[in-house]
Design a protein that fits this description.
By secondary structure, the protein is an alpha+beta fold. The protein has helices at about 20-40, 50-65, 90-100, 105-130, 135-145, 150-155, 165-175, 190-210, 215-230, 230-235, 240-265, 270, 275-280, 290-300, 305-310, 330-345, 350-360, 365, 380-405, 405-435, 445-455, 475-480, 485-490, 520; strands spanning about 80, 85-90, 460-465, 495-500, 500-505, 510, 530-535, 545-550, 555-565. It is built from 24 helices and nine strands. The strands form two sheets. It has a seven-stranded mixed beta sheet. Helix 1 (about 20-40) runs antiparallel to helix 4 (about 105-130), helix 3 crosses helix 4 and helix 19 (about 380-405) packs antiparallel against helix 20.
């Protein structure tokens, strides 16, 4: 992974001297600032509200911070129980210091993902510059900085969004170890630095393997391909005792990173593999041929122009519908980058690694029950997609350079202009239109409703919140009302077990049921009971209307009602003369 001499059939890396390196700092800083801005600006408002998976990550971090246990009562777990499933704990633990400073807020939950996502931009520069020069590195950083796919995932409190950065970091650390230099020639601090880089690279790859479920296939496959492509250097490392220490260093780091995962696999395998069992495609009565055809279709969908450049993942949570996972510009750059790799097949091992990276990335998604391309399960291909596109952009610039310097300047300016236009169009769609469109998917109407519920609930004997058109309303209640973790862990509650999923249906006197459930609850209420209900506006509720809650487009989304015993026929009536 160290810098290799440029062969005759490769374009000469542009701007590789010390002076040129200094000139690349200013544009790199600008690109990094743009990338950070796209990931941090209005982070708590775009996407609007909060997704239930984000909420459970945030609340579990809050529980650990306050009690040392997650919301399910487990002490500092490796995998966290979430709605009957189990999520890897790496992202939850990154939230804790942010909540310690900012509290239980959307910003605190998403900020680690945004910062980690922003760090991918300079890492892309470092990785590509080492092989292809500063201009290629800047192109890679720029394309990743404005990547719709990467920007979107960096703004969600999902563990999947951190994986592109971790993969890039692992390779940058491995590259920084300069394994092509004989270990015996290194002394003192140089050798110590090399070993530190190797241990760190192994640690990052090990951690990445279980940070998100899909990485369990992606990371081992990438490491195998890397070892195969650089097998000559690997054999050389095994020839001397000092060099073998390098192998032990990276292997030791890998083992350290995998240790929590391996421990959980031994002690609680049902937690480690629950998600894989839940989402894997196929059924017992499906033929091998049909299962194989479904797998191939799922895999191929991640390379379709529809998924990559036109519509993207049609989930309104993990992607912006009707906008490609990459900018339309990449429709031309990606094929050019692939052609460059194929033309220089024998002289460019790193290019072959990038191509393998692109092909390996969607493999986990191919095995799951999702058609048309999945932005989360296919996230392994994201870095390679943009890095190969950067090689395509470099080919355009080098082609113009061969014609004349003025042609190169014009083509470079045109390319930068197209990137800025693409970024501008994306920003308008993402920051202006998407928050309005996606508000129902993120259940943003409940933020204000829960604030009102928190203020009023002490005055009522029963609070009924309708889960109609809402997902995991109980967890959203815990997050938005910032319920005391100890009170929830020890308190009276009901959790409903469904097929492959579970949900909170009651926390104390707060019930998460539709208003049609009121006659069932009526006999349990005391005389003269007061009931607070929040229901959808198209569902009639007897009682006094207190307040409406609206979506960003002005549509009425929820209505709050005040009910008394007389509004619930099955409830005990007030004794004559009693206060009402």
């Amino acid at each position: 992974m160290s810098a290799q001499p440029v062969t005759e059939n490769l374009p000469a890396p542009s701007s590789t001297g010390p002076g040129a390196r200094l000139r690349s700092i200013a544009p790199l800083v600008a690109i990094v600032l743009i990338g950070a801005g796209l990931r941090l600006w209005r982070l708590d408002a775009v996407p609007p509200g909060i997704n239930q998976d984000e909420a459970v990550h945030a609340y579990d971090a809050w529980c650990l911070l306050k009690t040392g246990r997650d919301h399910d009562g487990a002490s500092w777990p490796i995998f966290f129980r979430a709605f009957g499933d189990y999520h890897p704990g790496t992202y939850v633990y990154t939230i804790i210091p942010f909540e310690a400073v900012l509290g239980l807020r959307v910003l605190a939950a998403r900020l680690p993902a945004a910062l980690i996502g922003a760090a991918a931009v300079p890492l892309a520069f470092l990785l590509v510059r080492k092989r292809y020069g500063d201009i290629a590195g800047l192109l890679a950083a720029a394309l990743l900085a404005i990547s719709p796919w990467h920007v979107h995932l960096s703004r969600l409190a999902f563990e999947a969004g951190t994986c592109p950065t971790l993969l890039l970091l692992g390779y940058v650390l491995l590259q920084s170890a300069h394994l092509s230099r004989p270990a015996a020639s290194l002394r003192g601090s140089s050798r110590a630095r090399q070993l530190l880089m190797l241990v760190s690279a192994g640690l990052v790859f090990g951690l990445t393997t279980w940070t998100y479920h899909a990485m369990r296939l992606v990371v081992p496959a990438l490491l195998i391909v890397t070892l195969w492509l650089y097998r000559r250097q690997a054999r050389q490392l095994l020839q001397t005792p000092s060099a073998r220490v390098s192998v032990f260093a990276v292997s030791g780091g890998l083992l350290i990173g995998l240790t929590p995962f391996l421990a959980a696999t031994i002690h609680a395998p049902e937690q480690v593999w629950a998600r894989a069992a839940a989402v894997v495609s196929g059924s017992g009565d499906q033929s091998i041929g049909a299962a194989g055809l479904s797998l191939l279709k799922n895999y191929a969908s991640h390379f379709s122009p529809t998924f990559l450049f036109i519509q993207g993942d049609q989930s309104e949570i993990q992607s912006m519908p009707n906008y490609g996972q990459a900018h339309f510009l990449a429709m031309a750059l990606l094929p050019l980058g692939i052609i460059h790799i194929l033309r220089n097949w024998h002289g460019d091992r790193f290019g072959r690694l990038l191509l393998a990276w692109l092909l390996i990335g969607p493999v986990p998604a191919a095995f799951t029950n999702w058609h048309g391309g999945h932005a989360l399960r296919g996230v392994g291909m994201l870095p390679a997609l943009e890095l190969i596109s950067a090689l395509g952009a470099l080919q355009l610039i080098d082609f113009a350079r061969k014609h004349s310097q003025s042609s190169m300047r014009i083509s470079t300016a045109a390319l930068i202009g197209l990137m800025l236009v693409s970024a501008g169009l994306f920003c308008r769609r993402f920051f202006v239109e998407y928050p309005i469109r996606s508000a129902p998917a993120f259940q943003s109407e409940w933020a204000d409703a829960f604030a009102e519920v928190k203020e009023k609930q002490d005055d009522y004997d029963l609070v009924l919140l309708s889960p109609d058109r809402s997902n995991q309303l109980g967890m959203l209640y815990l997050f938005w009302t910032q319920m005391d973790p100890a009170a929830y862990q020890k308190g009276d509650k009901d959790i409903e077990q469904l097929i492959g999923i579970e949900r909170i249906t009651r926390i104390g006197k707060v019930v998460f049921r539709p208003s049609t459930y009121l006659p069932i609850l009526g006999p349990q209420l005391p005389p003269c009971a007061r009931v607070l209900v929040v229901e959808r506006p198209d569902v009639p509720v007897a009682g006094v209307k207190l307040k409406s809650f609206h979506l960003p487009d002005g549509r009425e989304a929820l209505v709050m009602y005040d009910l008394t015993s007389k509004d619930i026929p099955s409830a005990s009536p007030c004794p004559q003369g009693a206060a009402k």
